Amino acid sequence: MLYDVAVIGAGPAGLLCARDAARRGLRVALIDSHEEPGVKLAIAGGGKGNITNRILAENRYVGSDTGILRSALKVFSCDDALALMRELALPWEERDFGQIFGLKPASFMADRLAVQCDDAGVDFYLGRTAKNITRPDAEGEISGPAFGRSGAQTYFSLFAGQEKITARQLVIAAGSPACPQLGANDQLARLAASWGHDIVPFQPVLVPLVMPENWALSGLEGISLNVRLGLKAGNDIRWPDPEGIRSLLFTHRGVSGPAVLVVSCWWKPGEELVIDFLPELPILELLNEKENGKLIVRNLLARRLPARLADALCPEDLARRKVAELGKKDRLRLADIVHRFCVLPAGTEGLRRAEAAAGGVSLASLSRKLESLHVPGLFFCGEIVDIAGLLGGYNIHWAFASGAMVAKGLKKGE
Ligand SMILES: Cc1cc2nc3c(=O)[nH]c(=O)nc-3n(C[C@H](O)[C@H](O)[C@H](O)COP(=O)(O)OP(=O)(O)OC[C@H]3O[C@@H](n4cnc5c(N)ncnc54)[C@H](O)[C@@H]3O)c2cc1C
Fold first, then answer.
1. What is the fold of 2-203+358-409?
2. C-beta 106 within 6 A of ligand 1
């Protein structure tokens, strides 16, 4: 069977791409190692799936060329994602920071998309890993529809289990190596590298940070509070999260929670994490308020912060002194501790605990339609492309938007 397109990966990117291409009348094969489509989609958002976001903007993404978002959002906007959810009969609710969650298990969305693919005529090859993938200019034996008269292959070919699949175009929607316990890996990114594409090394993002064993705030696990997080390299501090304030959770090994997951998208080994524990209340103002003058410093902090955190933060020599007694130097020292608490993380919890991976096929190797600049007819979409979104439905949205964009650029055979 000669297909117009073979899509490797039945995650949100591959499913939407396959469905849209088949609806345009293309003959489509969709291949996935798992027996079920959308295995990662099914566990997204704690099983509910944070599908998209009201605030879709370039600064919600990191990657080699976030400008691609502008093109992708023209093809598939937040309204398009909501229309998709309506079409799939998936009710949704909007939560803080513009996050849109489905009101049924996220597996429902994967199942319904698979039904739509089926209805559109997509041939599924599930439970089969795509192997021995070759491109049109590769040398091959001269037989069957995969090969041209010249002796060189005319089409892409691959094996899905025992089945040989040939296709005029190939879409790689194989995701990232985040969550290897689900079988995620970087094999197809390595194949892309061997075909001449620039690959940005994968890095876990949306991942908790691990702290050195005896760091000053160890033993606070379970405490959570709203903070603003910055990153410090040399003397420069930057505050990259466009939302500013989110919650942080102390864990046994370090810190987690939305604020940390988001900042992990930018954190690089060797950079210090800067924590502003009172992002909306300058401590210097509190220290200057007359009615606080009689309080001891520890109690002033404990009025605004969880008591155990206040104890851990407050320097011993200041803890029992009255606020009114503090000189300028001590006030500034306290302000630094509360608003610029610096710690050098030991690392991240790694790909096993990451919700996504930054890195992948560089946009420098792809056209604005996500077609390879090295192998005509080869496209990439979803998380395998070097674009990663912050927490908030941005990754699934990118998967859908890039899948829709690729589907538009595919050509129908004679
Ligand atoms: C725990 C968790 C929670 C998350 N929650 C959210 C959330 O709420 N909102 C959000 O926006 N994002 C979330 N994400 C991220 C989001 O799920 C992914 O970004 C998204 O699924 C990527 O879609 P994709 O189609 O590119 O790849 P994937 O969904 O990873 O799909 C790729 C598919 O390709 C298949 N594949 C790979 N190689 C081969 C091969 N050689 N042959 C055959 N098949 C192959 C894999 O089996 C896989 O099914 C979460 C991720 C995790 C791990």
1. FAD/NAD(P)-binding domain (3.50.50)
2. no
